[in-house]
Amino acid sequence: MSAPVLEVAGVSKVFRSGGRQVVALDGVSLALARGETLGLVGPSGSGKSTLARAVLRLVEPDSGAIRFHGHDLLATGGGALRRLRKGLQMVFQDPLAAFNPRTNVGTAIADPLRIHAIVPAAARRAAVARLLDRVGLPAALASRAIHEISGGQRQRVAIARALATEPELIVLDEAVSALDVTIRNRILALLVDLQRERGLCYLFVSHDIAVVRAVAHRVAIMDHGVIVESGPTPAIVAAPASATGRALVAAVPRLLPSPDSLP
Amino acid sequence: MSAPLLTIAGLGVRYAGAAEPALAGVDLAVAEGERLAIVGESGSGKSTLALAIAGLLPAGARREGRIDWPGLGHAPGAGRDIGLVFQDPGSSLNPVLRVGEQVAEVARRHRHLGWPAAFARATELLAQVRLPDPPRLLRAFPHQLSGGQRQRVAIAEAIAADPRLLIADEATSALDTIVQAEIVELLDTLVRERGMTLVFVTHDIALAGRFADRIAVFEKGRLMEAGPAAAVLGRPATAYTASLVASHIGLDTPPLVGGATP
Amino acid sequence: MLARLSRSPEAMVGLVLIALFAATALMAPWLFPRDPLAIVGRPLLAPFTDAALPLGTDRLGRNVLAQLVHGARASLLVSVSAALVAILAGMVVGTLAGLAGGLVDEVLMRIVDAFQIVPGFLLALAFVSVIGPSLPIVVLAIALGVWTAPARLARAEVLSIRERDYVAAARVIGMHPLEIALREVLPNALPPVLALSAVLVAAAVLTEAALSFLGLGDPNIVTWGSMIAEGRNVLRSAPSLSIFPGIALVIAVLGVYLFSEGLSGALANRRVRA
Questions:
Q1: CB-CB: which of A233, A255, A262 is closest to B206?
Q2: At what angle are helices C9-31 and C64-100 packed, to 10 degrees?
Q3: Fewer Cβ close by (within 10 Å): the C or N end of chain A?
Q4: How many angstroms separate the CA of residue A165 from the nearest CA in chain B?
Q5: Which of A82, A83, A94 has its CB closest to that of C165?
Q6: Which pTM does this prediction carry?
Q7: Largest CA-CA distance found in chain C, in angstroms, rounded
Q8: What are phi and psi of B224, to 5 degrees?
Q9: Helix, coil or strand: residue B16
Q10: pLDDT (tens digit, 9 = 90+) per residue, C83-111?
Q11: C169 and chain A: CB distance < 8 Å anywhere?
Q12: Mind listing the pLDDT tens digit for each residue in C63-83?
C-alpha cells in the first residue's frame, strides 16, 4: 500500500462546559489512501462529526496528530495552514447553512479559486462554469443567490466549491442525509464518479450504515469517542463484531419485510 | 376493513402568497385502528396534510374540500382527540419546564385531573414510552435528555389525553438509525396496545413499509396512490412510487464501489 | 423585507410620524427663516388667538411654533448623530471582542460593564458639566451612555455567527481571518444591530431633552428640552408653553419606537423563514 494521504494518530478531545466533561474523541487513529473512501459510522453523539471537524482543524484536538502527506496539521498555523487547506475540503450536512446567506453561486465557487490563486481573475468565470458543469448544473446558475436554488442544487454547489481547490481529500459530514432519496442517489453517484476521475479520497461520515455500504471501501464504526471496529465494508456489514455495529446493521429498514419478521 | 375514523374529500390547501397549492384534490379515508403511512419528498404536501387533519393550518392558508370524522361523531380537538409528534422534539418541548410538568399539564388539561393525579399519570406515561426511571425523569429538563429520550417525552405528551388518532410528522427524521428503529417500534407497540389510529408521515418509504398497514404516496401536493403496504412497495402503480422504491438504499442494494481497498 | 415592513401597521404609523418629524426639521429654515430666538410680539400671547403666531409666544415674546420647528431640527441632529456614534463604537468593540475572544474579549467586556454600571444619563450629565455644553460634546455625552447596548448585541451576534457552518466553510477554503471577519461575519451581524438604532435614536431624543431641561444643552440653539425648562417658570399661568414641546417629544419618540418595533418584527420574520 502506498503512503497514506491522511493519517490520524491518537487524537483525543474533551469538551468542557460548566464543570461537566464530555469525551468526544478518545485516542482515535485511522488512515486513508489515495482513491479510497472510508465510511465513518456511528450513532449521534459518538464523536464522528467531531473527528470530521478535527481533521480540518475546525475543532482543536487536545492531543494526537493529524498528518496530511506527512505534514502535521496540528503543528501548522497561519498562512502555512491556509495553504495546506487547499488539499483538504469539506461538504457539510445542511447545504443552506454552509453558505453565507448573502453570497451567490458564482462567488461561492470563485472564492477558493481566488484565495489559492488557482485561476487568474480573467479566467475565473469560465472556471466556475466548468465546475458547475462537472457537478451537473447549468452555468447560468452562477448569478443566482444561494437561497434561490433547491437543496439538491445547493449540495452540488457545495461539492463544486470543494472541488475548486483540486483537493486530494474531501470530508463529507452527513453530506447526503438531508436530501430527498432520489436526489441523494444522484449525489452519491456523482461523488463516486469524481473519485474515479480524480483519485479523490473521501472520509464519509454518516449514521446510516446502508448508505455507507454503498460508497465506502472500508468502514470504521465509532461509539463514545472510540473506533470500536474497522475493516473492509463487506466483511463488517456481513458480520459486525461490535454491539454498536450489530445495532447499526439491525436498524436498517428492509424494503419488504416478511410477515413473520414484524414485531 | 373497519369503519373510517375520518374521511378526506377534495381537500386542497394553498398557503398565503404561494403560487402553487400545497395540496390539491386529495381523497383519502383513514380506517379506525389502522396504521397509515403518508410518504413523499420535500414539497409533496405530506406535512400540510398532517396539519390539515389536525386543524393546525397556519392563519392565511386557504382550505377547500371536507374532512369528516364519522368515527368520532364530533369535531376533533387537537391534543384531546388527536395527538401530535413532530420532527424536532427540541423545539416542541418547553426548555424551561421540567419534563414532569409538561406531561402532567397535558393530562391535567384534557382529562381534568388535579396536579397530584396528573403527576401520577405522567409517571405512568413515561413508563409506557419505555423511559428508564420515570420518577427521576419527571424532574429533568429537556436539555438533559438525548434526542431519542426527548422524542419519547414528546410521544408521552401526545398520548397523555388518550387520543383516538396519533399523527407522527417526520418524528424519526432527526434521529440516528438506531434510535429511529427504537422509536418506530415504540409507536407500533403503543398503537397496538391502545387501539389508536396512527398517521405516520415520512420521506422514507422503507421505514413506512416496515410497519404501516397502508401507504399513501404524495408528490407535489397530489395523492399518487394509496393501498396496502405490500402492494404499494411490491407492485407500485405509478412511476413515481417505483422511483422512490428504487431509490431506497438497503443492505441488499448493489454497492457503487468495490469493497476492497483499491 | 420592505414588503413585510409595509404590511406592519405599527411600522407604517411610525414611519409617517418619523417622516413628519424629519420633514419639519429639514424645512425649518424655510418655514421660519428668522431666528427662532428673536422677539416677535407681546410676551405670553395665548395660543390660537393670533393667526400669525398660531401657538402664541413665550415669556420673552418669542414665536412658540418657530421654536418648536427649530427644536425638531436640533433634536434630530443631536439624536441621530449620537445614535450613529454609539452604533459605530459598539459595533467595533463588540465585533473585536467576539472575534478575538480570550483576554481581549475579557478586557473589552469589562469596560462595557463599567459603562453599564453607571446610569447613562448620569454619565452624560457629568461629561457635559465637566467639559461644557456644546453640540459635539452633547452628542458624545449621549453616545457615551448608550454605546454599550450595540456593543453587547454585536458581540452576541458575532459569537453565534462564528460557530455557523458557513464560517467553518470559509476557513476550510483557506480564507484569511480578516476577510472572514469583514465578509462573512460582519455583514450578517449588522442587521439586528441596525434595528437597535431606532431605539437608540428615541433614547437620545429623551436624553438630549433632559440635558437641555437642566440647562446643559448648547445655549445658542432652541431645543424642546430648553423650551420645557423655560415654560416651567410660568407653568400655572401659561401651561401650553410646556405642553406643546412635551407633545412634540412624545410624538417623535413614539414614532421612532413604533418604527423600530415593526422593523425588528420584520427582521425576526425573515430569520424564521430563512
A1: A255
A2: 130
A3: N
A4: 24
A5: A94
A6: 0.84
A7: 76
A8: -80, -45
A9: coil
A10: 999 999 999 999 999 988 889 999 999 99
A11: yes
A12: 888 899 998 888 888 989 999
Sheet holding B35-39, edge to edge: B82-85, B165-169, B197-202, B35-39, B214-219, B222-228
Q: How many CB pairs under 8 A join A and C?
A: 63
Please count the other Cβ atoms lying within 10 Å of the Cβ belonging to residue B176: 23
B73 touches chain A (CB under 8 A): no
pLDDT in tens, C4-43: 677 778 888 888 988 888 888 888 888 888 888 888 888 8
A82 touches chain C (CB under 8 A): yes
Q: How far apart are CA A227 and CA C136, in angstroms?
A: 65
Taking the CA of residue B249 and the nearest CA in chain A, the distance in Å comes to 6
Which positions in chain C touch A86 (Cβ < 8 Å)? 174
| Residue B48 CB contacts under 8 Å (≥ 6 apart), including other chains | B13, B22, B23, B57, B221
Task: At B164, list the grid cell.
Answer: 383516538
A68 CB near a chain C CB, below 8 Å? no
Interface check for B228 against chain A (CB to CB < 8 A): the answer is no
A185 contacts in B (CB within 8 Å)? 247, 249
Considering only CB atoms, A100 lies closest to which of C166, C176, C274, namely: C166
What are the beta bridge partners of residue B208? none
Give the residues across from A7 on adjacent strands.
A31, A67
By the 8 A CB rule, do A61 and A143 touch?
no
The C-alpha atoms of residue C266 and residue A140 are separated, in whole angstroms, by 31
Give ipTM to 2 decimals: 0.90
Beta-carbon separation of A182 and B257 below 8 A: no
A163, B208, B224, B232 from B228: Cα distances, Å: 45, 11, 14, 6
Beta bridge partners of B12: B64
B255/A contact by beta carbon, under 8 A: yes
C 236-265 residues with CB < 8 A to A: none
Cβ–Cβ under 8 Å, residues B118 and B156: no
**Count of residues making up chain C:** 274
